[in-house]
Design brief:
Blueprint (H helix, E strand, L loop, with lengths): L3 E4 L5 E7 L8 E3 L4 E7 L10 E2 L13 E2 L5 E11 L3 E11 L6 E3 L16 E9 L5 E8 L3 E7 L11 E6 L9 E7 L2 E10 L8 E6 L7 E7 L9 E8 L6 E8 L5 E8 L2
Antiparallel strand pairs: 1-2, 2-4, 3-7, 4-5, 6-7, 7-8, 8-9, 10-11, 11-12, 12-13, 14-15, 15-16, 16-17, 18-19, 19-20
Length: 274
């Protein structure tokens, strides 16, 4: 579950995913019982290796992709969830650092979140990462929460340690369970095109699906367009986006996402900067 894709500097493609579940007591579920695994492809996804299991306690990317840092190390956005008898949810984010071949692993401290306006705020999960290369070592994480807003945390040592308590942002996130987001920092033809982020631009539902952009390293964000905006349809949900920068055309971005919870289909959108 919660798979993500990563391409290393040699062009090898890693598909990481997670296996687990509390079969002894289904009412008491925790991702701490999961274990991480991946398969690898060296021919652009045509064929895949056998499963490799990560060291115990490591999960790699949870929903969102790992990124290669300017240091050459790989930083993976991870998190854990626990639900006690469907009543109390506890979400915590953390990051995992590895090498280009995914052999040696390190984990960071946990990141928590408690919003003053919401007593039932679970915390944060499923970070998306942006390296701020203008400030060596700085990485920005934006995270899903159950507090009607996205939360953020920063690292100043290439993701090894993070601010323990995340801060609220002005970006919305729906309802008590939040919704997944994803983003990427865009560089095209030697030009910094800023940070882009795909979110559900609502505090109530997973619609619309919106592209926002930051030209000041994530300090502020502006609405660009609604990728999906027909929220009146029965069961209309557009959720769990994944976004990557184009390789052949670096001024393009590719977005895929779940489309309409009734049909359980996937949709794709290609965006291009003029």
């Amino acid at each position: 579950m919660n798979p993500s894709l990563y391409v290393n500097d040699s062009g090898a493609l890693f598909l990481d995913f997670h296996i687990g579940g509390d079969v002894i007591n289904p009412a008491k579920c925790s991702t701490r019982g999961w274990y991480g695994a991946y398969v690898q492809s060296t021919d652009y996804g045509v064929t895949w290796s056998n499963i490799t299991y990560l060291p115990k306690g490591f999960l790699a990317g949870i929903k969102n992709k790992c990124i290669t840092l300017s240091s050459g190390r790989v930083l993976c956005p991870s998190s854990t969830e626990a639900v006690d008898y469907n009543l109390l949810a506890i979400w915590r984010a953390h990051m995992e650092t590895t090498d280009q071949d995914w052999v040696s692993w390190e984990t960071s401290n946990e990141i928590t979140f408690s919003h003053n306006s919401f007593h039932l705020c679970q915390g944060v999960i499923q970070p998306t990462l942006f390296e701020i290369t203008e400030h060596p070592g700085e990485v920005l994480a934006l995270m899903r929460s159950g507090c009607k807003c996205l939360a953020k945390s920063k690292s100043y040592d290439y993701g090894r340690t993070w601010q323990d308590s995340a801060e609220a942002t002005d970006l919305p996130n729906p309802g008590l369970h939040g919704s997944g987001v994803d983003g990427v920092r865009m560089f095209g033809d030697g030009v910094d095109l800023g940070l882009i982020l795909v979110i559900n631009n609502s505090t109530r539902e997973r619609c619309p699906l919106t592209l926002v952009h930051s030209g000041d390293l994530g300090a502020t964000w502006e609405h660009v367009l609604d990728i999906e905006g027909d929220c009146e349809l029965l069961g209309a949900t557009y959720e769990y986006p994944a976004v990557v920068q184009g390789r052949r055309n670096q001024r393009s971005a590719h977005v895929c996402y779940s489309y309409n919870s009734n049909d359980r289909t996937m949709a794709y959108s290609r965006l291009e900067w003029s």
